[in-house]
Amino acid sequence: MKINILYGVEGAKKAEGLAVIIDVFRAFSLECYMMDRGAKKIIPVADKDLAYLLKERNPEFLLVGERNGKMLEGFDYGNSPTQMEKADLKDKIIVHTTSSGTQGLANAIHAKEVITGSLVNAKAIVEYIKQRGYEEVSLVCMGWNGKEQTDEDNLCAEYIKSMLENKEINMEEKISELKETNGAKFFDKEKQEIFPENDFYYCTAINKFNFVLLLKKVTDDIKWIQKVELKKQ
């Protein structure tokens, strides 16, 4: 198996084979939590104007997302697992747009298949990759705003790659180090409204979920996320 590690929107554009679009803080961690809590469907979009249009046409849809970490005006929720703890998501259709993760999904146009990537379902991702049998896998670390590399996304790619190659990584140590780098914002008292501390722990709960999130094309403009459960080994 050829394993490519790519970065940002430009990396997503180059992704081939089975693409794993990684956004640990926080888009694709949040999508796992939303699906686990009963969301019927997630529609990821890159363009916030399309999100507003979908809401206008479908008032029952929930708008979830951010730009530069901040919840967009008129949205129901931001991009925070903590802030959605008590949200009623049962059978809800959610439109999700973010600065990084959903941009990667929109730009992975050459991949044969696209799934999301996060630490909370990393082992499930590895099992899914093995089951699908692709000769080429592209691990795309979306980073900050789809442009700047971040330690958490790079770590997730490294972790997935290591499991595919039957190698060991001290993840407890690596995650602890994130508190001093890209995860530091979650421990800044002045940023708690945007980056609650608990978001760090939600997003680094390794292998909490045994499913992957698969991107399904509906039209040229609209795709949705499908939850694919894996059999317990």
TrEMBL record:
<protein>
    <recommendedName>
        <fullName>Probable 2-phosphosulfolactate phosphatase</fullName>
        <ecNumber>3.1.3.71</ecNumber>
    </recommendedName>
</protein>
<dbReference type="GO" id="GO:0050545">
    <property type="term" value="F:sulfopyruvate decarboxylase activity"/>
</dbReference>
<dbReference type="Pfam" id="PF04029">
    <property type="entry name" value="2-ph_phosp"/>
</dbReference>
<keyword id="KW-0460">Magnesium</keyword>
<dbReference type="GO" id="GO:0050532">
    <property type="term" value="F:2-phosphosulfolactate phosphatase activity"/>
</dbReference>
<keyword id="KW-0378">Hydrolase</keyword>
<comment type="similarity">
    <text>Belongs to the ComB family.</text>
</comment>
<dbReference type="InterPro" id="IPR036702">
    <property type="entry name" value="ComB-like_sf"/>
</dbReference>
<dbReference type="InterPro" id="IPR005238">
    <property type="entry name" value="ComB-like"/>
</dbReference>
<dbReference type="GO" id="GO:0000287">
    <property type="term" value="F:magnesium ion binding"/>
</dbReference>
